Amino acid sequence: MLSWLLGRKPKAAAAADAAAATRAALERAFAHHQAGRLAEAEAGYREVLAADPRHFDALHLSGVLALQAGRPADAAAAIEAALAVDPASAQAHNSLGEAYRRLGRLEDALARLREAATRAPGYADAHFNLAMVLRRLGRLEDAAEEFRRAFAANPAMADAQTRLGETLNMLGRPAEAIVAHEAAIALRPDDAEAHNALGLALRDAGRLDEALAACQRAVALDPKLMLARFNVGNLLREKGFLEEAAAAYRAAIELEPAALAEAHNNLGNVLKDLGRTDEALDCYRRALVLKPDFAETVFNAAILLRERGRLAEAAEALRNLLAVRPAMAEAHYELGNALKGMGDAAGALESYQRALEAKPDYAEARWAAAMSQLPMLADSEAEAEASRARFDAELAALERWGEAHGVEALARAVGVQQPFYLAYQEADHRERLARYGSLCARLMGAWQEAAGFARAARVTRAEARIGIVSNHVHDHSVWNAIVKGWLQGLDRNRYDLRLYHLGRTHDVETALAKTLVAHYAFGKSDILEWVPLILDHQLDVLIYPEVGMDPLTAKLASMRLAPVQAATWGHPITTGLPTIDYFLSAEALEPAGAEAHYCERLVRLPGLGCSYAPLTAAPAQADLAALGIREGVPVLLCPGTPFKYTPRHDAVLAAIARRLGECQFVFFTPGHAPELMARLRARFARSFAAEGLDFDRFGVFTGWQNRPAFYGLMAQADVFLDTMGFSGFNTAMQALECGLPIAAFEGRYLRGRLASGVLRRMGLDELVASDAAGYVEIAVRLATDAAWWGEMRRRIEDARPALYHDRAPVRALEKLFADALGH
What's the pLDDT tens digit per position in 155-191? Predict the structure, then answer.
């Protein structure tokens, strides 16, 4: 009976009674086997083999049982013995192939399964198992053919169609894969795995809505199918539904907490996109507990650490990753970014070069290598000058690289890094930035044309449509100083105002911004989303408040997305871009002849060029001792970021220290740049030592302060030392709000005249120096002449209202719109 079930003819028995007993024992064992009582079945097979050690069926079936019990080595031994008895059995060859597969002996498995399929061409299971081994060996075309043969042999075998579909999708043929999956579902409509597999093929075919529906159908059919929930999360994230994606990933993790590191990793990515960085890092840690060598997670965590300013941790993680993946170009590139942020220009350039060695067409690394010739913090003026020469040479080399590798490839890299730190070197960079801007515009213009996006055309309408693109629609210096007042002052009866928020940060100021415009857009992360949106709005004027500070802004500003385009002084230097028509500056901030500094047409808006509102922060009580500041000596606040302090002005601080004898210069260390501040401190120490002074007697480095703490410290300070060469506007306005006198230096360019322009606007010309000696005199007098200090405080109080809520710049901006548009 059993031999008939197995497709074999019974052998003649020497003794009929013994044969009958053996058959009965085998049938009992097989009945246990079919019922899932494996221990009883195994005992029965041993009973048969004790009577007849060469009993084919008992040997074969005991091997099949061992496979089911997870003992592939025992299975292989038993089935090999069975084949020694009957080498012609296709079923035994198939079973042995499966045992070898589980043992990882794939080539041996392939030979056995081929033998099974050859001996029984209509044996669907043999073709199916052969296909699975071929797929595991990477022989996808051969695997697909075997899945087709399995289905031809058994047209009811839905699994063959599902696996065929998966294989075709691996081959990059999603349209064919979809056909196979739909055939499988037609056979088994309630097969959750088939619906999930169909969803993956639909995703790869770009049919995201249908893909999501298929995976959601899989979840509905089998709520415990973890992979379907995982794929739903992936698709929701791809469609921009981040909160929903996070919920789907959590549901997948809840089903199998220790099964899928990828779910923890992807949940981390979503939380990162949502700005919930602590939770994201926790997810990455969980993923690495499950899969310590998960390179993607190490990489993602390192990028997040870098973005949060934890540069040393990011660099360590990336070095550890590169120790095991030395050819991972992306890791070398990100290590370069981390080292650059730490001020290690040489290390950054070496990392970018290694990224290019691993991946010669890596456009982002090539672009970064050119931009990073400019150090964040130079050790000397000679180094700064040499860096400009290197940048010029690298810019020319970058142009040649683009010609060799194609415009489209290099366009992807535009803006990933920018010559941001060039502005902190006090020289005229117009020609240099014009060359840079021309390259950006040429690349992005070609990309725009290749992507099929038409250039903006003027549309006649009753009201002008004005767009503003900014990464900083929140409590930020660009918003507070410039954009907020403009939006509050522009006549919304005449102008349709539209705001494109590129960043992720949202706060109370973001909420205010939404009330000031007719249309507010955010949440998009790619130019493929932003460009068609902005073009569809058919803007008349498009303003970029801070070109040079954000990669996405750089890409967009390098294209023509509106008939009239303008930049302003969120980053106070010419953009160099031929796509920008106007640079919106201010009468009080520009020197005579400043037109020569710009590639754009310079527009001097009245006064400070903005309609500024005081921040009115409530100061917190400052504990000077806790901050490491000595009391009883003049306290001079130095609030600039590290790269605002250039080597040429180090001697000025030393001169002030020598004149005062005892004083405290208070510097602030940004949370994202402790390594950079340490380099600055070391440079100050060398500069002071050259003058015979011990910098540690004078310099105090404290943590970055929140606004109430900063206001409280300013209330107890004596002098606010504005940075020379690259001034501070927002910090100067905050000092004046607190009544703290400022020593300002009037530089040669807009970026060096922000505080001095404010002081002159108030009639406080005595606080503005035109040379280093004058600056030293102002600082020393404010620190030592109590009567003059008190007089300056009183005059600040009297003149301060003139700084606030000035609508003249806004009216002038409206006139510019009218003139530019011919209204």
Answer: 999 999 999 999 999 999 999 999 999 999 999 999 9
Residue with tokens 């991946």: 359
* CB proximity list for 614: less than 8 A, separation 6 or greater: 733, 737, 804
Amino acid at 151: F
Distance CA(315)–CA(712), nearest Å, equals 36
Cβ atoms within 10 Å, residue 733: 24
- Tokens at 587, concatenated: 């009468």
Quote the mean pLDDT of the chain.
Answer: 93
* Partners of residue 490 on adjacent β-strands: none
State pTM to two decimals. Answer: 0.81
Q: What is the pLDDT of residues 253-288, one digit of tens each?
A: 999 888 789 999 999 999 998 888 899 999 999 999
Which residue reads 């939404």 in tokens? Answer: 514
Q: What DSSP string describes 25-86?
A: HHHHHHHHHHTT-HHHHHHHHHHHHHH-TT-HHHHHHHHHHHHHTT-HHHHHHHHHHHHHH-
Q: What pLDDT, on the 0 to 100 scale, is given for residue 5? A: 40
Residues with Cβ within 8 Å of 528's Cβ and at least 6 positions away in sequence, in order, are 451
Q: Which residues of 366-389 are buried (b: 16+ CB within 10 A; e: fewer)?
A: bbbbbbbbbbbbbeeeeebeebbe
Question: Measured between alpha carbons, how far is 688 from 705 in angstroms, rounded to an integer?
Answer: 26
Give the end-to-end CA distance of the chain in Å, rounded to a whole number.
Answer: 98
Q: Give per-residue pLDDT as tens, 668-705.
A: 998 777 888 999 999 999 999 999 999 999 999 999 89
For the chain, which residues score pLDDT lower than 70? 1-15
Which amino acid appears at position 300 of this protein? N
Which among 240, 235, 196 is positioned nearest to 249, based on CA atoms?
Answer: 235
Distance from C-alpha of 495 to C-alpha of 493, rounded to nearest angstrom = 6
- Residues 268 and 342: their CA atoms lie apart, in Å, by 25
